DNA sequence: CCGAGTTGTTACTCTCTGGTAACCCTTATG
DNA sequence: CATAAGGGTTACCAGAGAGTAACAACTCGG
C-alpha cells in the first residue's frame, strides 16, 4: 500500500514507537521497524537519516507530549497543593494514554547510548524543574532540585510497576494518592530539616 | 602481569563493573573489557562463558551486596519508623560506597536485554517487598506493593540525580530526610485513602 | 496515453564484535 | 634440566545489522 511522504513518515513514527518501546533500541533492527511498518528498509532512510535519528525523533515527540500534558494541567492552579495534585494526575493520565511513549522514555528496556541518555535526562530534568518550585521555598536550591528528582522517581517507579505488569489504573485516583504522599512528605522534610 | 585464576577472575569482575557502569552493556565490547583488565579477549572466556554470563555475574553480585546491606540494617529495628530510617540510610550508604554497582543496576546507561531486565526487575521487586510490610497494614496488598515500588523509585531518583552529577552526599542525613518524606507521605495516603 | 516525479524494492557492501582454534610463554617440580 | 600444567596471545571465523546504489512500478498532470 502506497502512501504520500508525510503520511508515511507519521506511520513510521507511530509504528516504531511501539516496536522500540517493547523491544528496546538495541534489540530492534531497522528491518524489524520496516517490517512492522509494512515496507522495506530503504523507505525508512527516505524519512530519517539514521536509526539514531529516528529514535531521537521518537524521544523528542514523547517528551513534548509529556511536557505539554503536565504544563497545561498545572497552569491554572492557584495553590501549590493544587498544582501538585493536578500535575500528578496529568502525569498519570499521560502514562495511561500514551503507554508506549512512557515505556520508551522510562521503561526498563529503554536501552540508551550517549545521545539518547542525554535527551532523556533533559526531559527528566525539565520535569524536576517544574516540580522544584513547589517545594518549600526555604529549602536551599540544590536540595530542592534533589527532592524534585526524587518525586519524579516516585512517579516513575509507580508507573513502571503498573505498566510493566499491565495493570489498569485510574489516573485521577492514583494521581491524588501520590500527590498526597508527595505533599505530606515534603512538609515533613521541611519541618525536620 | 600474570595472575592465578581466582585472582584474575576477581580482577575481571572489578574492572568490568566499572566499564559497564559507565558505558553500558551494548556500548562496551569484550575487547574494551579485556583492555581495561590488561589482558586479551580469550582470557575473559576462560572465566566466563559469554558476555551475557559476565554481565549477569556482575548484576548478581551487585544485587546481593545491596540486599545484604539493607537487610542487615533493618534487622534489629523495633518500630516501623525505625526500620524505614535505617533502611534508607543503609541504601544511601550502599550507593555512596558501591557507586559503580549502583550505576550498573539503576544508572540510565544500564542497557538491558531480556535477561538482565528480568534480573534487575527481580532485585527491584525484592527491595519493594522488603518495604511493603512497612506500609500501613489496612491498605490492601496490591496497593501496598505499588506504593513500595514508588518509594524504591523515590530513592532511585534521588540517587541517580546525585550520582550522575557526581555530587557528594552524607548517607545518614540524606537517608533521614528521605525516610521522613516516605514515612509522613505514607501516613497521608493512609489517612486520605 | 505518455512521461516525469515520487514511492518502493532487490540485492548488495562493510564494519563491528562475539566467540574460538591453535599456538607460545612462564613457572614449579622431581 | 626436562616436562607438565596452567596462564596468555595471535589470528582468525561467522553472523548481524546499519546503510546504500541501482532499479522497478505506480500515478497524475497535460
- Estimate what percentage of residues of chain A fall within beta strands: under 5%
N-to-C CA distance of chain A: 63 Å
Class from helix and strand fractions of chain A: mainly alpha
How confident is the prediction overall: mean pLDDT of chain A? 94
Q: What is the count of helical runs of chain A?
A: 9
Contiguous uncertain segments of 5+ residues of chain A: none
CATH fold category name of chain A: Tetracycline Repressor, domain 2
Percent of residues in helices of chain A comes to over 70%
Question: Helices and strands of chain A, in N-to-C order?
Answer: HHHHHHHHH
Q: In oligomeric terms, what are we looking at?
A: homodimer
Q: What overall form of chain A do the CA principal axes indicate?
A: elongated
What's the gyration radius of chain A in Å? 19 Å
What is the CATH superfamily of chain A? Tetracycline Repressor, domain 2
Q: What is the total number of structural domains of chain A?
A: 1
CATH class of chain A: Mainly Alpha
- Give the second-level CATH assignment, the architecture of chain A: Orthogonal Bundle
- What is the strand tally of chain A? 0
The largest sheet of chain A, given as strand count, sense and whether it forms a barrel, is: none
Give the largest interface. Answer: A-B, 46 and 46 residues
Amino acid at each position: 500500500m502506497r502512501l504520500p511522504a508525510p503520511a508515511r513518515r507519521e506511520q513510521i513514527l507511530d509504528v516504531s514507537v511501539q516496536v522500540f518501546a517493547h523491544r528496546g533500541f538495541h534489540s530492534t533492527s531497522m528491518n524489524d521497524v520496516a517490517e512492522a511498518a509494512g515496507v522495506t528498509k530503504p523507505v525508512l532512510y527516505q524519512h530519517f537519516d539514521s536509526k539514531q535519528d529516528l529514535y531521537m525523533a521518537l524521544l523528542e515527540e514523547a517528551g513534548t507530549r509529556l511536557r505539554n500534558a503536565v504544563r497545561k494541567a498545572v497552569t491554572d492552579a492557584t495553590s501549590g497543593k493544587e498544582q501538585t495534585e493536578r500535575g500528578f494526575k496529568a502525569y498519570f493520565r499521560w502514562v495511561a494514554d500514551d503507554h508506549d511513549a512512557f515505556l520508551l522514555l522510562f521503561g526498563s528496556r529503554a536501552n540508551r547510548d550517549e545521545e539518547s541518555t542525554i535527551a532523556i535526562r533533559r526531559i527528566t530534568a525539565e520535569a524536576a524543574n517544574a516540580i522544584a518550585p513547589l517545594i518549600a521555598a526555604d529549602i536551599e536550591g540544590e536540595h530542592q532540585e534533589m527532592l524534585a528528582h526524587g518525586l519524579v522517581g516516585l512517579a516513575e517507579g509507580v508507573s513502571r510497576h503498573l505498566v510493566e505488569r499491565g495493570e489498569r489504573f485510574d489516573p485521577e485516583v492514583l494521581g491524588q494518592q501520590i500527590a498526597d504522599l508527595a505533599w505530606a512528605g515534603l512538609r515533613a522534610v521541611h519541618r525536620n530539616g
